[in-house]
Amino acid sequence: MFGRLLLLFVLMPLIELWLLILVGEHLGAATTIWLVLVTGFVGASLARRQGLQAWLAIQRETQQGKMPAAALVDAMMIFVAGLLLITPGMITDVVGFSLLVPPVRAFLRNRFRDSIKMQVGTRVQGFGAGFSSGVHGTSTNQEGVPRPQVNDVIDVEYHRHTDE
Question: Rounded mean pLDDT of 133-162?
Fold first, then answer.
């Protein structure tokens, strides 16, 4: 975690500064400054428009009684894109503009979902750590039919008792 934060807050700005100097040497200082300003304004405008669309999608899905998970993740990525685009730099601009492309967001959203599923699946699997999987012995159901018992499954029968 510390390494990632170091990369994000120390190395990334240094790399961005180095790239801006290189571009400035080739295009000139004034052109480089205009390039940074234009990408910032255009990016902020695009992020604002797409952010509004994401907000409307969140409202629409909520009114329909749906959980707006995809729209929320899109809104988060659009917000990050806006932050990256108003930050001076070439790499942040490329990443920011990429996050404004709907197919890129869909790809990242699916990767994020799969990552969460993997983490949740691992935790759920670890929940029954004291149990081993597999068939161990048999029991009978209410009709007397034998059925295998699996140690990592909890079988519960519920009977409601009423006081009359």
Answer: 62
User: CA gyration radius for the chain?
Assistant: 27
Angle at 99 between CA 66 and CA 33, to 5 degrees: 145
- Give the burial class of 135: count Cβ atoms within 10 A of its Cβ; 0-12 exposed, 13-18 middle, 19 or more buried: exposed
pTM for the whole thing? 0.67
65 vs 160: which has the higher pLDDT: 65
The answer to the question of residue 84 being in a domain is yes
3-state secondary structure at position 140 = strand
How many domains are there within the chain? 1
Per the listing, tokens 């932050």 go with: 83
**Is 16 among the domain residues?**
yes
Residue range(s) defining the domain that contains residue 29: 12-111
